[in-house]
Amino acid sequence: MAAALTSARTLTPLDQRPVVSYVDSCQTPDGGYFFARVAPASAQDTYHVIKCLALLGQRPLGLRAVKDWLSTMADSSVARNLRGLYFLSETYSDLQMSTEPLCKGLDSVWALQNPCGGFGTVDRVYVEVPSELEATYCAVATLQNLGAPVDGRRVVAFVERFRNADGGFGGEGRSILSSTYYALATFARLGQSPEDPQAALRWLRQHEERWDIQYLEDLFWLVRALEALGEGVRYREKAAAFTLGCQRPSGGFGRAHWGIATLEDTHHAVAVLKSAGYLGDEGLG
């Protein structure tokens, strides 16, 4: 099925209707979203839905129910950890909800500040964490969303510790795509540039040329890292073909040309297709 979708759509924009239908089907009775389609909803999945729909120029059909559910999450344990607070603060901001109720969770952000000016561990991270710079990016975004102060100078200095001679970013002298993305995304959030943006761009272009893309998140990181530098992906048709091959019969997307659809992967797919110029608007107002 995936191969057929790719060959049929490689040169044509994505039909948004099946994507929106898939997203709508994942709304849970409590008002939020969860890819498994059962309550309780997930703050992470709800975040990905709102981001995805915004890229499509849409809002949830049950917007009032979504906002009501989000309001209840301000006093939950989810709002007392960095990732949960990040997802909630981004979604509140995107839906123009007051983020003041979330400020009670700020202590959980400050607790992760390290002596080097960033957030989270300085050395090794859990294998499930894509980058040692993810926590710093999430912390900066959350603090900005909640109107809290951010010492941009110290954060930039911390992130620059992970810049390598080849122009990319990553710990232990090894540049990786996820860390390069989180580094450049952090600079963009702060309105700053890396010390050598051209070196970072060269590293990204070399990565794009090798096309070391195995999963949809790899392509998402590449596209968004380039966008942080004001650039776009060069191999647009190739990016679209890979992404369309990840679409499942449900209308959603999986992380590769196999596996189940998830809301995170669907958000990533829509972001890539929009950047590549393959996002159609058939049937949508």
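[next item in queue]
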Amino acid sequence: MITELNKVQQLVVPGHKIDVSEYRIRNFRMHSALENLSRLCLFIIECDSNNTVTKVTPRNARQIISQWSMIKDEFQFALDHNDTPTGSYEFAYQLLFLHQSQIQKVRNVKMKRVVGEMFNLFQVMMSIDSANTQQFVDLDDAAVIKEAFCVVDDVIARWLGDGTFGDLGLKAPDFSCLGEIIPDVDGDYAQIIEPSPVMPDPMLPDVPDLDQPKAESRVGK
């Protein structure tokens, strides 16, 4: 008796490209921390946990916590060495970071909260005045960044716990009866807007006013 096997070519389904935006920063010291923050956010949306709606694997949680600790350590290293010599040329460095609409598409509600706060931290770090120097980080700027760090600490502790089976953060219902919501409740929408004296768009689209109805004539009645 012979059992024959037929070899077939394995077909690999390609993944989707990730939408990112390009930023530039002059501060070499801060760039090191931000580079690792970008890499962490990419991991969050690609990791196994993000195939679910509400679950986080202990391993993924520990990986995120470990990388986050490294980012904070990199920033502390920048503060400890923020007054060292520089060369005669100035340099600018590139950073690719998740586009905000890509964050809105994150399926896992726990991961979405974490990566959203990390995006806010990224914006804070890129916006401080010291980001325009070659490596100096002013202590007042550092205090602002550390305040944003505390928010990320809190959101990780809240939604991922400590990465053990006994503590994986808040539990969230998956609402499986809803299936896939199309369009998503947040519209997968985000927009970058410069500060402006013009009022923000209204909560709901504006509509034209109606003419007042003419009063009925009662003459002869």
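[queue empty]
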